[in-house]
TrEMBL record:
Disordered, as annotated region: 407-429
Superkingdom of origin organism: Eukaryota
Protein name, per record: Mannosyltransferase
Enzyme kind, highest EC tier: transferase
Source species taxonomy: Eukaryota, Fungi, Dikarya, Ascomycota, Pezizomycotina
Topology relative to the membrane: Multi-pass membrane protein
Residues that span the membrane, as ranges: 237-253, 265-285, 318-339, 383-403, 438-457
Family to which this protein belongs: Belongs to the glycosyltransferase 22 family. PIGB subfamily.
Pathway stated in the Swiss-Prot or TrEMBL entry: Glycolipid biosynthesis; glycosylphosphatidylinositol-anchor biosynthesis
Protein's cellular compartments: Endoplasmic reticulum membrane
Keyword set, alphabetical order: Endoplasmic reticulum, Glycosyltransferase, GPI-anchor biosynthesis, Membrane, Transferase, Transmembrane, Transmembrane helix
Purpose of the protein: Mannosyltransferase involved in glycosylphosphatidylinositol-anchor biosynthesis. Transfers the third mannose to Man2-GlcN-acyl-PI during GPI precursor assembly.
Organism: Phialemonium thermophilum
Length: 670
């Protein structure tokens, strides 16, 4: 009442007090609260998954859903396996999980005799809906870990919760089927169950850290989750090496280690048992998937380090994660995250030894992981994505202190600083009021607008175009809508339905096209596996997509066309529809002639960004066009907006589907 009367006297706007969780709350009430929060997060991320209508990066599909589709529907399913799967660089655990979901869903729907079109819709939506569960549980464990550190019901813990909910990166990426998304969930689950008590002071410890059944059980959950994360993404090992280094060496930590000889033996034993168990499961899964024994982490290191193939996909400056990575992850909460990294590592008398050591260890983990990954030439924001929950937790108390003010009042009626949240304690009752509301409203508005634009308006065309092609195929070929294809029927049994003249992997593939008899082809971008690092051959190497978009390729190889033409025309002339080199000898011994026939199929539809339209026109149309004999008459059948900007000039403008007029059958209806 005192604080409310003060607000009235000063003329400040009245804010309804928010009661803090009391230490007297029954454990069943706290369990019910956790259940409710998890339910809300599940619903929130489910809506999040359904709202994602845009394309981000091809790994979302080609490192997870394409191999999963092959697991579920076989070799003749039309799944596109990239070179990484052909050379055993990836663990099969991630696609095997989604493959099992595909298989079970298809069997269930077939038994219920669902229409093929409805089955296709379910199979397209299934992975992201399942991924929303992982995303929700990651948010939940972030909140629970914050409660372990700052206290149940503390403002800092709730700040970590709300920062995660309003983070645009999580809205944009957490429900996508990246292996990094699953890695992040596994990492924060492992961090939540990790026995942080081993970082405390031996003088304050009442018993051995790993002496109880519950502590050992939590350690096992943590180690299994961490081991799976490391198998999926070997770089995740950096996080756990950092945590174990400080836990065992006590460098920069306060107090003496509470780890006795017995607890140390238990720790080593569980690391060995859990690690070897996960490794065995992974090896067996890879044996079943690849058909022979292989160890993907070794293959990954061999190709990306000794063969330097990672640089083929991009070379970033050393400061990329500092200048772009962390800012993109944290967006408007960046100042609080940076403040957390600086302040949480410094000594503080207001925190318990355990709390201070835990926050210092998390800070050390972020800094060493970012520093180690900065030494690698190829960098992506997704590679430091598992650090985001840690950044939220480090930033949480500074977000709380900036945007809230509280007047803690204990059960005896006096104020107490204990509400700031010691390790494992529940704060006393207090009232909390918001402050800096104008600034908070702007931050939340920016985050919401950014999340909305990225999830709905930035590059939506690559998703919608495959939906158009699938529904068009359903209309044109209603008798070919089978998910399983007879192994005896080769690709030649069906005409080429679509040809994608886009940068490599610009759209999803079989996970969205679905039907194996919907034949499609796209430009490839295989790396130069046949060349040596640093060789002239590697420096001059151009993949198929690069050769099409090569601006210096302006000359036709042969024919009656002009000596100079639009870029890309030479590629279409030489590689996509090459001339048949059949020689027609004259009967009277005159000069030989070259046949004008061309090899290659003309698809029913051509797909590309509108910037290639002059290329297609120059190749197919006009009296001097090299491909005029193919009889293609281009008409725009479908087009879609693809965002306000794109850093890749090849992807700028609308995405267009051109009807070539080919592939028409008498039985087809239009």
């Amino acid at each position: 009442m005192a604080s409310e009367e003060a607000l009235i006297k000063t003329g400040a706007p009245k804010v309804a007090p928010t009661p803090r969780v009391s230490a007297k709350l029954h454990p069943e009430v706290l369990a019910a609260q956790s259940h409710d929060i998890l339910s809300v997060l599940l619903l929130f991320r489910f809506v999040n998954a359904l709202c994602i209508r845009t394309f981000f990066q091809p790994d979302e599909y080609f490192q997870a859903l394409e191999p999963a589709w092959r697991v579920a529907f076989g070799e003749n399913s039309g799944a596109w396996l990239t070179w990484e799967w052909q050379h055993q660089l990836r663990s099969s655990l991630h696609p095997a999980f989604f493959g099992a979901l595909y298989f079970a869903a298809e069997k269930l729907m077939s038994s219920l005799q669902f229409f093929p079109q409805f089955q296709a819709l379910i199979l397209v939506a299934l992975p992201k809906v399942v991924q929303s569960v992982f995303a929700a549980y990651a948010d939940f464990c972030t909140w629970k870990l914050a409660e372990r550190i700052y206290g149940q019901g503390s403002n800092a813990a709730w700040s970590a919760f709300w920062v995660a909910v309003f983070n645009p990166w999580l809205w944009y990426c957490s429900t996508r089927t990246f292996s990094n998304s699953v890695e992040t969930t596994l990492t924060v689950v492992a961090l939540y169950h990790w026995p942080w008590e081993m970082l405390g002071d031996a003088k304050e410890a009442k018993e051995d850290v790993l002496s109880s059944h519950d502590s050992v059980k939590g350690l096992r959950i943590s180690l299994v989750s961490a081991a799976v994360a490391v198998v999926l993404r070997p770089t995740n090992l950096l996080i756990w090496l950092a945590i174990l280094t400080l836990a065992l060496s006590r460098l920069t930590l306060d107090g003496s280690s509470p780890l006795g000889r017995r607890s140390l033996v238990v720790l080593v034993r569980e690391i060995a048992v859990c690690g070897l168990s996960v490794l065995t499961v992974s090896l067996v899964s890879d044996r079943l998937y690849y058909g022979f024994w292989t160890f993907p982490p070794y293959r990954f290191l061999h190709f990306n380090l000794s063969q330097s193939l990672a640089v083929f996909y991009g070379h970033m400056p050393w400061h990329y994660y500092l200048s772009q990575g962390v800012p993109l992850l944290t967006t408007t909460f960046l100042p609080f995250s940076l403040l957390g990294l600086v302040k949480q590592a410094s000594p503080s008398t207001s925190r318990s030894t355990l709390q201070a050591n835990t926050l210092r260890t998390l800070t050390f983990t972020v800094l060493t992981t970012v520093g180690s990954l900065s030494l690698i030439s190829h960098k992506e924001v997704r590679f430091i994505y598992p650090l985001l929950p840690i950044l939220h937790i480090l930033a949480a108390p500074f977000v709380s202190s900036f945007f809230t003010a509280e007047d803690p009042v204990d059960s005896r009626g006096d104020t107490s600083p204990a509400a700031s949240g010691r390790w494992g304690t529940r704060p006393s009752q207090s009232t909390t009021t918001l402050r800096h509301k104008f600034f908070l409203a702007h931050i939340l508005s920016i985050n919401i607008l950014l999340a909305t634009y990225l999830s709905v308006f930035h590059q939506p065309a690559p998703i919608s175009v495959v939906h158009f092609l699938r529904t068009e195929f359903e209309r044109v070929h209603p008798d070919r809508l089978h998910l399983h294809r007879d192994g005896s029927s080769g690709d030649d049994a069906d005409p080429l339905f679509a040809l994608f003249l886009t940068p490599c992997h610009s759209t999803p593939w079989r996970s969205h096209l679905v039907y194996p008899r919907l034949r499609a082809r796209a430009l490839t971008c295989e790396p130069p596996l046949h060349t040596k690092p640093g060789s002239p051959e590697r420096e001059a190497y151009l993949d198929e997509a690069d050769r099409f978009y090569h601006r210096d390729d302006a000359a036709f190889v042969s024919g009656s066309g002009p000596s100079k033409g639009t870029w890309g025309v030479g590629f279409l002339d030489r590689e996509m529809w090459p001339r048949r080199r059949a020689v027609d000898a004259a009967a009277d011994g005159g000069e030989e002639g070259v046949s004008e026939e061309r090899a290659g199929e003309v698809p029913r539809y051509l797909v590309g960004f509108e910037g290639i339209e002059p290329v297609l026109t120059a190749f197919f149309q006009g009296e001097a066009a090299p491909g005029r004999a193919l009889g293609v008459n281009l008409t725009r059948r479908w087009e879609a907006f693809n965002g306000l900007f794109n850093e890749d000039w090849r992807r700028r403008g609308k995405l267009v589907v051109w009807d070539t007029g080919a592939g028409r059958g008498d039985s087809e209806g239009d």
